[in-house]
Amino acid sequence: MSKVVISCAVTGSVHTPSMSPHLPVTPAEIAEQAIGAAEAGAAILHLHARNPENGQPSADPQLFMQFLPRIREACDAVLNITTGGGQGMPLEDRLAAAMTAEPELASLNMGSMNFGLYPMLQRQKEFRYEWERTYLENSKDFIFRNTFGDLEYILETLGKGKGTKFEFECYDTSHLYNLAHFLDRKLVTPPLFVQSIFGLLGGTGADTENLLHAKRLADKLFGDDYQWSVMAAGRYQLPFVTMGAINGGNVRVGLEDSLYLGRGQLARSNAEQVTRIRGILEALSLEIATPAEAREILALKGADNVGF
Q1: Is the per-residue pLDDT at 2 higher than 90?
Q2: 40 within 8 A of 271, measured Cβ to Cβ
Q3: CATH of region 6-305, choose from 3.30.565.10, 3.20.20.70, 3.40.50.1980, 3.30.70.1450
Q4: pLDDT tens across 90-141, in order?
Q5: How far is CA 198 from CA 88, 130, 230, 261, in A?
Q6: Rounded distance between C-alpha atoms, residue 187 and residue 181, angstroms
Q7: Which residue, among 134, 95, 139, 135, has the nearest Cα to 115 in the 3D structure?
Q8: Which of 107, 171, 175, 239 has the greatest number of CB atoms lying within 10 Å of its CB?
Q9: Distance between CA 192 and CA 276 in Å, rounded?
Protein backbone atom coordinates (compact mmCIF):
# COMPACT_ATOMS: atom_id res chain seq x y z
CA MET A 1 0.00 0.00 0.00
CA SER A 2 1.18 3.51 -0.78
CA LYS A 3 1.51 6.08 1.97
CA VAL A 4 -1.68 7.71 3.25
CA VAL A 5 -2.20 11.39 2.45
CA ILE A 6 -3.93 13.26 5.27
CA SER A 7 -5.97 16.29 4.20
CA CYS A 8 -7.29 18.79 6.73
CA ALA A 9 -10.26 21.05 5.94
CA VAL A 10 -9.60 23.92 8.31
CA THR A 11 -12.80 25.97 8.53
CA GLY A 12 -15.18 25.42 5.57
CA SER A 13 -18.59 27.05 5.10
CA VAL A 14 -20.81 24.51 6.87
CA HIS A 15 -20.49 25.24 10.58
CA THR A 16 -21.23 28.62 12.13
CA PRO A 17 -19.22 30.35 14.88
CA SER A 18 -21.82 29.71 17.57
CA MET A 19 -21.35 25.95 17.23
CA SER A 20 -17.78 25.96 18.53
CA PRO A 21 -15.45 28.57 20.04
CA HIS A 22 -12.58 26.71 18.34
CA LEU A 23 -13.74 27.23 14.75
CA PRO A 24 -11.16 29.55 13.11
CA VAL A 25 -12.67 32.71 11.67
CA THR A 26 -10.08 35.47 11.25
CA PRO A 27 -7.18 35.16 8.79
CA ALA A 28 -4.78 34.90 11.74
CA GLU A 29 -6.81 32.06 13.30
CA ILE A 30 -7.09 30.22 9.99
CA ALA A 31 -3.35 30.52 9.41
CA GLU A 32 -2.49 29.41 12.94
CA GLN A 33 -4.75 26.36 12.81
CA ALA A 34 -3.64 25.42 9.30
CA ILE A 35 0.02 25.54 10.31
CA GLY A 36 -0.75 23.49 13.41
CA ALA A 37 -2.52 20.86 11.31
CA ALA A 38 0.47 20.66 8.97
CA GLU A 39 2.83 20.25 11.90
CA ALA A 40 0.60 17.42 13.17
CA GLY A 41 0.91 15.56 9.87
CA ALA A 42 -1.53 16.97 7.32
CA ALA A 43 0.06 17.03 3.86
CA ILE A 44 -2.87 18.96 2.31
CA LEU A 45 -4.71 21.94 3.81
CA HIS A 46 -8.15 22.67 2.36
CA LEU A 47 -8.98 26.35 2.83
CA HIS A 48 -12.01 28.65 2.90
CA ALA A 49 -12.18 32.25 4.12
CA ARG A 50 -14.58 33.95 6.51
CA ASN A 51 -15.57 37.51 7.31
CA PRO A 52 -13.40 38.25 10.36
CA GLU A 53 -16.14 40.45 11.85
CA ASN A 54 -18.85 37.79 12.12
CA GLY A 55 -17.50 34.49 10.77
CA GLN A 56 -19.73 34.39 7.70
CA PRO A 57 -18.23 32.49 4.72
CA SER A 58 -16.53 34.85 2.28
CA ALA A 59 -15.19 34.53 -1.26
CA ASP A 60 -13.06 37.69 -1.04
CA PRO A 61 -9.60 36.94 -2.51
CA GLN A 62 -8.09 39.65 -0.30
CA LEU A 63 -9.04 37.63 2.78
CA PHE A 64 -7.39 34.52 1.33
CA MET A 65 -4.27 36.55 0.63
CA GLN A 66 -4.08 37.46 4.32
CA PHE A 67 -3.42 33.82 5.28
CA LEU A 68 -2.13 31.96 2.20
CA PRO A 69 1.38 33.52 2.15
CA ARG A 70 1.71 33.12 5.91
CA ILE A 71 0.85 29.41 5.74
CA ARG A 72 3.17 28.83 2.80
CA GLU A 73 6.03 30.55 4.60
CA ALA A 74 5.55 28.46 7.75
CA CYS A 75 5.11 24.97 6.26
CA ASP A 76 5.43 22.87 3.12
CA ALA A 77 1.84 21.60 2.98
CA VAL A 78 -0.12 21.61 -0.28
CA LEU A 79 -2.67 24.44 -0.11
CA ASN A 80 -6.04 23.43 -1.56
CA ILE A 81 -8.43 26.33 -2.19
CA THR A 82 -12.18 25.94 -2.36
CA THR A 83 -14.21 26.49 -5.52
CA GLY A 84 -17.39 25.67 -3.59
CA GLY A 85 -17.32 28.84 -1.51
CA GLY A 86 -20.47 29.14 0.53
CA GLN A 87 -24.23 29.03 0.23
CA GLY A 88 -25.62 31.35 -2.46
CA MET A 89 -22.29 32.49 -3.92
CA PRO A 90 -22.31 32.80 -7.74
CA LEU A 91 -19.75 30.88 -9.74
CA GLU A 92 -17.47 33.83 -10.48
CA ASP A 93 -17.25 34.67 -6.77
CA ARG A 94 -16.57 31.05 -5.85
CA LEU A 95 -13.70 30.94 -8.33
CA ALA A 96 -12.19 34.34 -7.52
CA ALA A 97 -9.73 33.26 -4.83
CA ALA A 98 -8.46 30.22 -6.73
CA MET A 99 -8.07 32.21 -9.95
CA THR A 100 -6.07 34.82 -8.04
CA ALA A 101 -3.92 32.37 -6.08
CA GLU A 102 -3.40 29.77 -8.84
CA PRO A 103 -2.96 26.96 -6.27
CA GLU A 104 -1.54 23.50 -6.78
CA LEU A 105 -4.89 22.01 -5.81
CA ALA A 106 -8.52 23.16 -5.59
CA SER A 107 -11.71 21.44 -4.52
CA LEU A 108 -14.38 20.75 -7.14
CA ASN A 109 -17.87 19.46 -6.36
CA MET A 110 -18.75 17.15 -9.25
CA GLY A 111 -22.40 18.04 -9.67
CA SER A 112 -25.40 20.07 -8.60
CA MET A 113 -27.10 18.83 -5.44
CA ASN A 114 -29.31 19.61 -2.48
CA PHE A 115 -27.11 20.70 0.44
CA GLY A 116 -29.09 20.53 3.65
CA LEU A 117 -27.61 22.10 6.77
CA TYR A 118 -30.93 22.93 8.46
CA PRO A 119 -31.01 19.82 10.72
CA MET A 120 -28.28 21.57 12.76
CA LEU A 121 -31.03 23.90 14.01
CA GLN A 122 -32.28 21.02 16.17
CA ARG A 123 -29.04 21.11 18.17
CA GLN A 124 -28.11 24.80 18.05
CA LYS A 125 -30.77 27.02 19.62
CA GLU A 126 -28.87 30.26 20.25
CA PHE A 127 -26.64 32.18 17.87
CA ARG A 128 -24.09 34.97 18.31
CA TYR A 129 -24.70 36.46 14.87
CA GLU A 130 -27.94 37.20 13.06
CA TRP A 131 -26.86 35.56 9.77
CA GLU A 132 -26.29 32.10 11.28
CA ARG A 133 -29.89 30.99 11.81
CA THR A 134 -30.99 32.29 8.41
CA TYR A 135 -28.04 30.59 6.73
CA LEU A 136 -29.04 27.22 8.14
CA GLU A 137 -32.77 27.70 7.51
CA ASN A 138 -32.20 28.72 3.89
CA SER A 139 -30.35 25.48 3.16
CA LYS A 140 -33.73 23.73 3.09
CA ASP A 141 -34.32 25.34 -0.31
CA PHE A 142 -30.69 25.62 -1.43
CA ILE A 143 -29.33 23.79 -4.46
CA PHE A 144 -25.56 23.85 -4.82
CA ARG A 145 -25.06 24.46 -8.52
CA ASN A 146 -22.31 22.89 -10.61
CA THR A 147 -23.81 22.14 -14.02
CA PHE A 148 -21.86 20.42 -16.77
CA GLY A 149 -21.27 23.88 -18.20
CA ASP A 150 -19.99 25.15 -14.85
CA LEU A 151 -17.67 22.16 -14.47
CA GLU A 152 -16.32 22.54 -17.98
CA TYR A 153 -15.65 26.24 -17.36
CA ILE A 154 -13.78 25.53 -14.10
CA LEU A 155 -11.73 22.74 -15.65
CA GLU A 156 -10.78 24.93 -18.60
CA THR A 157 -10.07 28.22 -16.81
CA LEU A 158 -8.58 27.07 -13.51
CA GLY A 159 -7.37 23.61 -14.50
CA LYS A 160 -5.89 24.04 -17.95
CA GLY A 161 -5.50 27.80 -17.61
CA LYS A 162 -3.67 27.87 -14.27
CA GLY A 163 -2.22 24.36 -14.01
CA THR A 164 -4.29 23.63 -10.91
CA LYS A 165 -5.35 20.05 -10.22
CA PHE A 166 -8.48 19.15 -8.31
CA GLU A 167 -9.79 17.35 -5.29
CA PHE A 168 -12.88 15.96 -7.03
CA GLU A 169 -15.58 15.97 -4.35
CA CYS A 170 -18.03 13.16 -5.07
CA TYR A 171 -21.13 13.21 -2.88
CA ASP A 172 -22.92 10.57 -4.93
CA THR A 173 -22.13 7.78 -7.38
CA SER A 174 -23.47 10.00 -10.18
CA HIS A 175 -20.57 12.36 -9.45
CA LEU A 176 -18.14 9.54 -10.23
CA TYR A 177 -19.82 9.07 -13.60
CA ASN A 178 -19.66 12.84 -14.19
CA LEU A 179 -15.92 12.71 -13.55
CA ALA A 180 -15.56 9.74 -15.91
CA HIS A 181 -17.33 11.82 -18.58
CA PHE A 182 -14.75 14.58 -18.29
CA LEU A 183 -11.94 12.04 -18.25
CA ASP A 184 -13.24 10.61 -21.52
CA ARG A 185 -13.23 14.15 -22.95
CA LYS A 186 -9.64 14.66 -21.73
CA LEU A 187 -10.61 17.73 -19.69
CA VAL A 188 -9.04 16.12 -16.62
CA THR A 189 -5.66 14.43 -16.41
CA PRO A 190 -4.74 11.42 -14.24
CA PRO A 191 -3.91 10.78 -11.53
CA LEU A 192 -7.34 11.92 -10.37
CA PHE A 193 -7.79 12.80 -6.70
CA VAL A 194 -11.25 11.44 -5.87
CA GLN A 195 -12.78 12.43 -2.54
CA SER A 196 -15.79 10.25 -1.61
CA ILE A 197 -18.06 12.08 0.84
CA PHE A 198 -20.57 10.54 3.22
CA GLY A 199 -23.15 11.69 5.75
CA LEU A 200 -24.21 15.08 4.40
CA LEU A 201 -27.96 15.56 3.85
CA GLY A 202 -28.44 15.61 0.08
CA GLY A 203 -25.52 13.26 -0.61
CA THR A 204 -24.68 9.62 -0.01
CA GLY A 205 -25.57 8.32 3.43
CA ALA A 206 -22.95 7.17 5.92
CA ASP A 207 -23.36 3.45 5.41
CA THR A 208 -20.49 0.98 5.16
CA GLU A 209 -21.94 -0.58 2.01
CA ASN A 210 -21.98 2.85 0.37
CA LEU A 211 -18.30 3.33 1.12
CA LEU A 212 -17.37 -0.05 -0.35
CA HIS A 213 -19.60 0.53 -3.37
CA ALA A 214 -17.98 3.92 -4.02
CA LYS A 215 -14.55 2.26 -4.02
CA ARG A 216 -15.66 -0.56 -6.31
CA LEU A 217 -17.23 1.89 -8.75
CA ALA A 218 -14.22 4.20 -8.77
CA ASP A 219 -11.98 1.18 -9.42
CA LYS A 220 -14.22 0.21 -12.33
CA LEU A 221 -14.30 3.71 -13.85
CA PHE A 222 -10.73 4.87 -13.23
CA GLY A 223 -8.59 1.75 -12.73
CA ASP A 224 -5.07 2.78 -11.78
CA ASP A 225 -5.63 6.40 -12.86
CA TYR A 226 -6.82 7.73 -9.51
CA GLN A 227 -6.07 8.24 -5.84
CA TRP A 228 -9.04 7.65 -3.53
CA SER A 229 -9.77 9.60 -0.35
CA VAL A 230 -12.63 9.52 2.15
CA MET A 231 -14.29 12.18 4.26
CA ALA A 232 -17.46 12.02 6.34
CA ALA A 233 -19.60 14.55 8.16
CA GLY A 234 -20.02 14.91 11.90
CA ARG A 235 -19.92 11.80 14.05
CA TYR A 236 -19.10 9.65 11.03
CA GLN A 237 -15.75 11.33 10.44
CA LEU A 238 -13.30 9.07 12.26
CA PRO A 239 -15.01 5.70 11.62
CA PHE A 240 -15.41 6.34 7.91
CA VAL A 241 -12.00 7.78 7.17
CA THR A 242 -10.49 4.85 9.08
CA MET A 243 -12.48 2.39 6.95
CA GLY A 244 -11.34 4.27 3.87
CA ALA A 245 -7.69 3.95 4.88
CA ILE A 246 -8.08 0.24 5.64
CA ASN A 247 -9.44 -0.16 2.11
CA GLY A 248 -6.46 1.58 0.55
CA GLY A 249 -7.63 5.18 0.63
CA ASN A 250 -6.36 8.53 1.82
CA VAL A 251 -8.21 10.50 4.49
CA ARG A 252 -9.62 13.94 5.22
CA VAL A 253 -10.43 15.41 8.63
CA GLY A 254 -10.88 18.97 9.89
CA LEU A 255 -13.34 21.34 11.52
CA GLU A 256 -15.10 21.91 8.19
CA ASP A 257 -16.33 18.32 8.34
CA SER A 258 -16.75 17.75 12.08
CA LEU A 259 -16.38 19.95 15.15
CA TYR A 260 -15.71 16.99 17.44
CA LEU A 261 -12.78 14.86 18.53
CA GLY A 262 -15.02 12.20 20.06
CA ARG A 263 -18.50 11.72 21.48
CA GLY A 264 -19.52 15.02 23.12
CA GLN A 265 -15.97 16.37 22.98
CA LEU A 266 -15.33 19.44 20.86
CA ALA A 267 -12.00 19.43 19.07
CA ARG A 268 -9.94 22.37 20.30
CA SER A 269 -8.12 22.62 17.01
CA ASN A 270 -7.70 21.05 13.60
CA ALA A 271 -4.36 19.73 14.79
CA GLU A 272 -6.13 17.60 17.42
CA GLN A 273 -8.13 15.85 14.72
CA VAL A 274 -5.05 15.32 12.55
CA THR A 275 -3.14 13.93 15.53
CA ARG A 276 -6.01 11.56 16.34
CA ILE A 277 -6.32 10.12 12.83
CA ARG A 278 -2.56 9.93 12.43
CA GLY A 279 -2.37 7.86 15.61
CA ILE A 280 -5.07 5.51 14.32
CA LEU A 281 -3.35 5.09 10.95
CA GLU A 282 0.05 4.46 12.48
CA ALA A 283 -1.49 1.92 14.86
CA LEU A 284 -2.70 0.13 11.72
CA SER A 285 0.91 0.12 10.41
CA LEU A 286 0.07 2.65 7.70
CA GLU A 287 2.68 5.24 6.77
CA ILE A 288 1.82 8.94 6.53
CA ALA A 289 2.75 10.83 3.36
CA THR A 290 4.79 14.01 3.61
CA PRO A 291 3.78 17.05 1.53
CA ALA A 292 6.55 16.24 -0.95
CA GLU A 293 5.25 12.69 -1.28
CA ALA A 294 1.67 13.96 -1.69
CA ARG A 295 2.84 16.21 -4.54
CA GLU A 296 4.46 13.24 -6.24
CA ILE A 297 1.47 10.95 -5.70
CA LEU A 298 -0.96 13.54 -7.15
CA ALA A 299 1.43 14.91 -9.81
CA LEU A 300 1.01 18.52 -8.68
CA LYS A 301 2.79 21.48 -10.27
CA GLY A 302 4.72 22.40 -7.10
CA ALA A 303 4.64 25.20 -4.54
CA ASP A 304 6.96 27.40 -6.62
CA ASN A 305 4.30 27.70 -9.33
CA VAL A 306 1.47 29.28 -7.35
CA GLY A 307 0.36 32.89 -7.27
CA PHE A 308 1.02 33.73 -3.62
Answers
A1: no
A2: yes
A3: 3.20.20.70
A4: 999 999 999 999 999 999 999 999 999 999 999 998 999 999 999 999 999 9
A5: 22, 29, 8, 18
A6: 9
A7: 139
A8: 175
A9: 27
